[in-house]
Amino acid sequence: MLQHPSVQALLEKLEKQHNLSSILNLLGWDEQVNLPPGGAEQRAQQMATLSEVHHQLASDPTVEPLLQKLESDWDTLTQQEQTVAKQTRRDYDRATRLPADYVAEKAKLDSQAYHAWVQARENDDFAAFAPYLKRQVDMSIQGAEFLGHGENPYDYLIDLFDPGMKAETIEGFFSTLKAELVPLSQAILGSPIKAKTERLRGFPVEKQEAFLKEVTKTLGFDYHRGRIDVAVHPFCSGNANDTRLTTRFNEDVPLDSLFSSIHETGHGLYEQGLPTNQLHNALGQAVGMGIHESQSRLWENQVSRSREFWQFFEPKYRETFPDQLAGLSSDDLYLAINAVTLCPIRVDSDEVTYNLHILLRFELEKKLIGGELDVDDLPAEWNRLSQEIIGLTPASDKEGVLQDVHWSGGMFGYFPSYCLGNMIAAQLWYKVLEEIPDLPNDFAEGKFDRLLTWLRDCIHQHGKLYDTQDLVTRVTGEPINPQHLIRYLKDRYMPLYQ
Amino acid sequence: MLQHPSVQALLEKLEKQHNLSSILNLLGWDEQVNLPPGGAEQRAQQMATLSEVHHQLASDPTVEPLLQKLESDWDTLTQQEQTVAKQTRRDYDRATRLPADYVAEKAKLDSQAYHAWVQARENDDFAAFAPYLKRQVDMSIQGAEFLGHGENPYDYLIDLFDPGMKAETIEGFFSTLKAELVPLSQAILGSPIKAKTERLRGFPVEKQEAFLKEVTKTLGFDYHRGRIDVAVHPFCSGNANDTRLTTRFNEDVPLDSLFSSIHETGHGLYEQGLPTNQLHNALGQAVGMGIHESQSRLWENQVSRSREFWQFFEPKYRETFPDQLAGLSSDDLYLAINAVTLCPIRVDSDEVTYNLHILLRFELEKKLIGGELDVDDLPAEWNRLSQEIIGLTPASDKEGVLQDVHWSGGMFGYFPSYCLGNMIAAQLWYKVLEEIPDLPNDFAEGKFDRLLTWLRDCIHQHGKLYDTQDLVTRVTGEPINPQHLIRYLKDRYMPLYQ
């Protein structure tokens, strides 16, 4: 499969690069899970030195002739070889075409802008953050130019997270979603039926931990190759050999730990399903953020918020928390699991309104990068659009435009992936139901291996062999289609709230 | 202090090297504390690649002319500059004379052999570990040869851990100790007075953890710059910015967790006392293992097994474990803390017989490295010498030759440091008592800052400015002298057991 001598030569180099990047990744994990506060400055220095060394390997000039040879032999390459060459070219261009002073300035800005954002959010003072955000917008556009995408910088930024995806395509999806989901969310929010989430109180942390470990293990997460720890924010880090999930605990918000752990488990199952013998190259790496997010969302939502899932786990949940759940009927519990609420904060949102938060951000960053919206006008525009799309105006910038970390790091083009993930998850869900119609019965018996095997076969095993759209088309017979998400949300939520 | 332009140029390079070596150190910590078993192979690869990169920096050819310049200006250098130059020469020679493939192979072997040792110990199967141990012996001898010490590889290995120390000097100390401590331990073991350690049972792990955190914090360990976790083997890792201790818990052996934590805290206090503004060079780094071990032993034994220490902590201990300690008088408890027993396991041994375990290992590794003993014959020779020195034959290799991690990492020449540490600790102890005669009264009030300040001033602040023997002489007025340890053990144990 990977026999071309230039590919072989690349693989050796990629292995070392990947060893270093996976260490960088571990340092990041450790920083959030273990690092004593006094070690922060040293950790920044460690990461700077290791990043520099990694960059030297990634811009090794002997890579260029190998890539040119492969590009001239293109038609004789296997699809696998093409995939490795394509991704290496992408990474190599990024490592070599960005001037050293641009890279240094960007790293400095990222750090300054992050701290400015933390301060600004604390003080609810957007004006203090605005100069940094302006520079991030400028530097993102400049970065796209260096890489030869000066004409369509936002497309380029989106492509960083979802290879092959374009703003125009996303705009098409999102206008369909907007037309359907705004009225759907209003109908649900207007319903007299309300979830009683406030009655879930006093769930001891150790018991929560034991329960979510049982759940994630049952779903198929392999603790022989992974672990779960506590961090401020839930995330999934590492790779198939060593997949590290994090969660956080609050005795009075037990469903947050549980579902965020299941969400991260979905990411982890994807990582653990990638071919371990190709981890150092594109064939053993995730397609992009959209597909990654489809895996986390599918396990979190389609699977774990289903009736069947709770047929199996409710008795165990009640056994673990007999007193805490005593006053709640099965229907109450199920409604709490599928609560829909009007909330200004994206990360606290349910799976219906979550998408609206993404539509808002997409509109805004498209305009920012397109030069149609000035940073100074951003808060007003955020609030106006928030009212229009989500149905609320945030009480402050702290709960509005300043709530997310992404833009402080210049990560424009990242947000759409979350919603792409939701759309792909729903599309995969209806496809697997077509192929295995009695699949939900498995869940009621605590069995998830048929679903996992299907995902392994259709998605995980291919690494980056197919781009997002190609992969979705190959598996489901059509490109990404927002109607599946709309159908899914209506199927699940309309019966619950009417 | 460090103004010579060549020293300045070195410092920049040393900073990057230290950043990478501290990452290697963290990877080692993570391997023992967090790594899922499935990640072992990847960790070996990560460490091999990072070691290779570190080796490239450490063998940077531009270092040689800087060192030569410093060596030609030697008499004009400050003592601090000489220290940095001397240590850099030492490290540089090690880096340039060891071929890159040797270094990479060694790093990989270290990781593989560690995992093989864990398995072998679990299965009591020395034969499964033997091939790795043979390779470690061979690679150690080979390493000494590369560095120009092919004639005296064991001296070279000892010097790695205790700069300036020789096997012959140690042999002199150890024959004095053997002559005095074998009869002392036999006398104690023959005494009708027996510690009732078996009555310490059922100490819940969380309470043990809380208590030992209180103790280690009171001793002065700074948790803002450090942490403590659970690992198979207690150790101290990291540096002054981020000092990581480990311990292990057993509900029925509570004193083990407590005293091993205090021991590691002693190491941690040394690390945290090194000058943080010099961490990247010799002035901010520990002298060697002997001095390091003197710090851990002094806090563990002279301080924390004293009557005064327990005057302060006994009430708190009883408050934490009222039921568990109910049947034990203060004298019973104090005797349990200073129990002397015939035990096959080094790390479970008391401070009297501990030294005998080191004498055993010193004899064996001297023969292994000297080519007088084959790895295959090691278990039999271990058992024979164990009977002669300690007075028992272990029931299995698990309790004998497989008990320690060190040799799996090729760390021959390390064990003697433990006993050097015991000797130095006793010597420092009598010195500080001479200078601050009422010091033990501090302990009875839960105050440890006068001792810590004395250690900071005499030992910690100097980094590697003095070699082991020079430092001991400077502080105590004489080189290492085993009589202090003998005096201390007799002072403490003869009244207790007669």
How would you sum up this structure, described in words?
2 copies of one chain form a homodimer. Chain A has 498 residues and is mainly alpha-helical. Chain A has 20 helices and 3 strands. Chain A has a 3-stranded mixed sheet with strand order 1-3-2, with helices on both faces. Chain A is globular, with a radius of gyration of 23 Å. The mean pLDDT of chain A is 96. The A-B interface holds A 15-16, 19-20, 22-23, 26-27, 30, 34-39, 41-43, 45-46, 48-50, 52-53, 222-227, 239, 241-243, 279 and B 15-16, 19-20, 22-23, 26-27, 30, 34-39, 41-43, 45-46, 48-50, 52-53, 222-227, 239, 241-243, 279.
- Give unreliable regions of chain A as ranges: none
Oligomer: homodimer
What is the CATH architecture term of the largest domain in chain A?
Orthogonal Bundle
Count of DSSP-assigned helices of chain A:
20
Element order, helices and strands of chain A?
HHHHHHHHHEEEHHHHHHHHHHH
Question: Quick one: how many beta strands of chain A?
Answer: 3
Structural class estimated from helices and strands of chain A:
mainly alpha
Outline the fold blueprint.
Two copies of one chain form a homodimer.
Chain A: H1 5-33, H2 40-58, H3 63-72, H4 79-97, H5 100-123, H6 126-146, H7 153-161, H8 167-190, H9 205-219, E1 226-230, E2 236-239, E3 242-247, H10 254-273, H11 289-303, H12 307-320, H13 330-337, H14 354-370, H15 378-389, H16 415-435, H17 439-444, H18 449-458, H19 468-476, H20 483-497
Parallel strand pairs in A: 1-3
Antiparallel strand pairs in A: 2-3
Helix pairs in contact in A: 1-2, 1-3, 3-4, 5-6, 6-7, 8-14, 8-20, 9-10, 9-12, 10-11, 11-16, 14-15, 14-16, 16-20
